Amino acid sequence: MLARADALLARHRGTGSARALPAAAALLTDAIDTSSADIPTLTDIAFAPALQPVPAHVKSAGAQAPGETVVVSEGRWASSPAPEPAPPVEVISRVQAQNLEHTVYLKLKQELDERIAEVVHERFMPEIGVALDHALQKVTHDLNASVGALVRSSIEETLQLQIGKLRLALEDEVRREEAVAAIPSAIIPAFPAPQARPAEMEIAKSFEPAAIEAHWYPVWEESGFFRAGLDESNPGNHCILLPPPNVTGTLHMGHAFQHTLMDALVRYHRMRGYNTLWQPGTDHAGIATQIVVERQLEALGVSRRDIGRAEFEKRVWQWKEASGSTITRQMRRLGASCDWSRERFTMDEGLSGVVTEAFVRLHEEGLIYRGKRLVNWDPVLQTAVSDLEVESREENSHLWYIRYPLASGEGHAIVATTRPETMLGDVAVAVNPEDPAYKDIVGSRVVLPLCGRQVPVIADDYVDPEFGTGCVKITPAHDFNDYQVGERHKLEPINIFTLDARINDNAPAAYRGLDRFEARARILADLEEQGLLAETKPHKLMVPRCGRTDAVVEPMLTDQWFVRMDSLARAGLDAVARGEVKFVPENWTTTYNQWLNNIQDWCISRQLWWGHRIPAWYDGEGNVYVARTRAEAQAQHDQALAECIQAGESATATELRQDDDVLDTWFSSALWPFSTLDWPRDNPALRLYLPSSVLVTGFDIIFFWVARMVMMTLHFTGKVPFREVYVTGLVRDAEGQKMSKSKGNILDPLDLVDGVSVESLVEKRTANLMDPRQAESIARTTRKHFPEGIPAFGTDALRFTFASLASHGRDIKFDLSRCDGYRNFCNKLWNASRFVLMNCAGRDTGVDDSLAVELSAADRWVASRLHRAADDARAAFREYRFDNLARAIYGLVWDEYCDWYVELAKVQLATGSEAQQRGTRRTLVRVLEAILRLTHPVMPFITEELWQKIAPLAARGGPSIMLQRYPETGAAKIDEAAEQEVDMLKRLTTACRTLRSEMNVAPSQKLPLLVQAGQTQITPYVPYLSALARLSEVVVVAELPVAEAPVSIVGDCRLMLKVEIDVAAERARLNKEKARTEAEIGKSESRLANPNFLGKAPAPVVLQETERLARFRATLEQLEQQLRKLA
RNA sequence: GGGCGGUUAACUCAGCGGUAGAGUGCUAUCCUCACACGGUAGAAGUCACUGGUUCGAUCCCAGUACCGCCCACCA
């Protein structure tokens, strides 16, 4: 039993390996199932005869918070789960029989609490039971007074707590077990169990992404392809910091979008041979995470204060362990090529060390200070929050006009206020010095209603005579503006609120203990009754609420830690002004500058339990010692003490107590660019990857994070954290609404990858709503928008969609139909590859250079187009224009390679010479192979799968496409002549097809074509034209016959399709064409007739216009000729 | 109050001084041996409005209207 217990304890201390969990959990369950018989009752314990001495470590349990579960094992402390014991009714009654004095009772209670907690685990640790017995025995022996009903309830309370905690522990255990069971292995936790992939060379008729994704990601990761490049001789390096998501969070559309872009950038630079690092990690997200865990506790009827700080922290860590990998698993599903071996967590030992180091240094430099200031206070969480975490919303309220009688007894001043309850803390009434209405009363005193205090009437510019009555009450302790007025006039603030925003003892007795909202109602009623409420007007005002809890934020005078911002902000502004950090799009620079120019000191302390504890210690006299460790603080204290004694002052040594507060989450985030690179230790990664290349993020955290990283990184390392900041738009729903849980319009990116039924979608959207009443309407709109649920698009299609939507300076309305289109695109690429494999696998693809290869204009054309696309792609990456990247790829693959080249290649393969066929296969294969490399950064999975099959045909190959070079650009490969030739062919083909279509010729019917060519050499086009336009023959004639057949004009060629026509219809068609041409001619002529145009427009523009006119005129003539023939 | 965006085809968006483009949708037609998640052809726009600059404005400038966001905030 002991061994089992130790195993459990070891795990709870975090020393057990993840793999050991299921086994240990099984042990626990086992123990619970079978061992209820050997759980001792309290009776057994309290009156057991054992009399062994209490071990020293058991005594120290008194330092634990009441109700803390404590287990002793080998001198170490750890909380532990255990089953629920039966309530010890007999014990209570027997103890009750005793008589006990109050102080003694307290001592007993405390000890009992501890003992009861221990007893619960007694079956693991018999010796504890023994120690406990002894303690109880001793207590019983010492006491001869009885314990009253108080004791009974106290014991019951303790037991309840214990029971609650045990239930928690058990549930947690089960959850963890499930979570672990769901993870097949540590390295590939992200994908469903791999399905069988199609065998080599066999290729499915359509693209099925799931198996391919599940296969390739683990291969890449296990092969170490994501690892940071650390070659210091490599001149190129590219680093992206992952904005660390909340460790307990899940991936949302915004993440998926940004991660897609980051991954594309990293893969692109990796393929270009750069040293690359995509630094992943997660954030402990202080408030957010604490709230989640508190809610869990709440559901079980326990508060964090009940279980104590240490236990609470442990629970958060457990929650982190259990859910912390969710988001990284999801990232893997999206193909993120982060260097997972470098994954960091802001509360890691290393990063925590950096946090302490940074804090201490800033403090030493005088940039961190502690002081009593008015801060934004969340009375629900009971912590300070920073300005940025406060979100103001307009709400309907009232403006109340209150009479303040003059102390002289004659008349009164009327103040207008939106917060009457704060009047209890008024210290003055203020008017504008220029306001004639109040000139006389400045300097006199008024009587504060309900309080009876007299306060002065002061004059201050802050008061706007036009608003309200032009007379303002001044409450420095509860309003930021009033605080400043108070400082100017040396008025002592009167705080009237407790930390949970109830009226405190500084206020008249009648209001004490009232909640601020109750107090408002009571005060208004009382004022009304006394005839002091002059007027009530409806009024809209901005109510500040906490971004996390939605509680109305209260300005509160408290002791807090601050970072002095002026010098840091100036450095941050300078770095951007010098261009060391660039924003893309540029206009975000303005936002950044504006914020830094108006910045206030940053309140970094939070009265929370989850976060980096502030490295400051206090002695008994309240002196503060900021130090890296307790020992260092102790040394400072000792020295100060010695100095005092030396100076002949009296001083006593006291035990140091660490500051209870933790740091704002964003403090550690601000250090992310160098803390993740193991600063301050010099190492290759730090040398190579600071500054990083680009930060990809949304504008919403420019203030929270971007600006602070710039300031901190500059301060500590002298370098900027990143050279560019690419600010993406926000992903919104199809109606342009921000996606949020409460709106019920969230989409899980993985649902787009895997597909989801409408039922599960509704379930997901309506689960755990803050306001369950919304469930019905959310369900309704969801069913309306997704009547069929969402089909599986696959990761590549989703990524391509994100890329195509990533234009600059615009939010993204996420439109599912785009996914549809790009899923189809994947299929197109897949089938083009299938075609190439069918025609080239096992055939001569021109790998052997000694054999003759003949390349047609079509072959040269497609190669030329490929190089243009590669140019465009590189430009797109350079400018972060992923939409352009997507367009370039899409157009190349679909419009050029598939629609034209593959069709032309079919002709060449069917009719060409051996050398031509060889050239065709070579081109088919090589261009496709390059297309795959070109596309890989955006669509990693499908390109890898296809490349593995295609590359060998192009005499390439390797373990992965991601290690191949990105296609090179090269003006040499641009072939203008071939492009013109194919362009002509395309126009001829389209003209024929249009004629066919307009004449309603069945696709299966082949027709002869007569061509009257001008200068154009038509012969080379004939085979292609015949196939593409389904012609039975092409006859070149000197003059088209006078026949009743449709004619089309392309350049200097006239095409006649030999088909019987309706003369009237054909005339109508030609007339329509003629009208269009004449309109163009008209526009062109008037332009060219304008002397100003001829005189001022640049020559090439004039030339272009002249040529255009000539072309139209030629066409017009042909059309007229044809019309005459039909006459 | 200060600042930043947006307004282009039915929808979602590119273009940003010189012939209005894409995807989706729509119409017609075709299961032609890579692909019906497809082929072919087609219809569809006074580029919000008003002025200005210019030989020329969807594009530049100014203003108006509407939509959206950020910051600050008058009690």
Top keywords for this entry?
about 45% helix; disordered N terminus; alpha/beta; four-stranded mixed β-sheet; about 1150 residues; four-stranded antiparallel β-sheet; 38 helices; RNA-binding
Q: What ranges have pLDDT less than 50 throughout 5 or more consecutive residues?
A: 1-105, 144-151, 177-189
- The CA-CA distance between the termini, in Å, is 109 Å
Mean pLDDT across the residues is: 81
Number of strands: 31
* Structural class category: alpha/beta
Percent range for helical residues?
40-55%
Outline the structure in words.
With 1127 residues, the chain is α/β, with parallel strands linked by helices. Helices cover 47% and strands 14% of the residues. The chain contains 38 helices and 31 strands. The strands form eleven sheets. Strands 8-7-16-18 form a four-stranded antiparallel sheet. It has a four-stranded mixed sheet with strand order 12-13-11-14, covered by helices on one side. The chain has a four-stranded mixed sheet with strand order 29-28-31-30, with helices on both faces. Strand 30 (1047-1050) and strand 31 (1053-1057) form a beta hairpin. Helix 6 runs antiparallel to helix 7 and helix 36 (1063-1089) runs antiparallel to helix 38. The longest helix is centred in the first third of the chain and has 33 residues, at 149-181. The termini are far apart. The model is unreliable at 1-105, 144-151 and 177-189 (pLDDT under 50). The structure holds one RNA strand of 75 nucleotides.
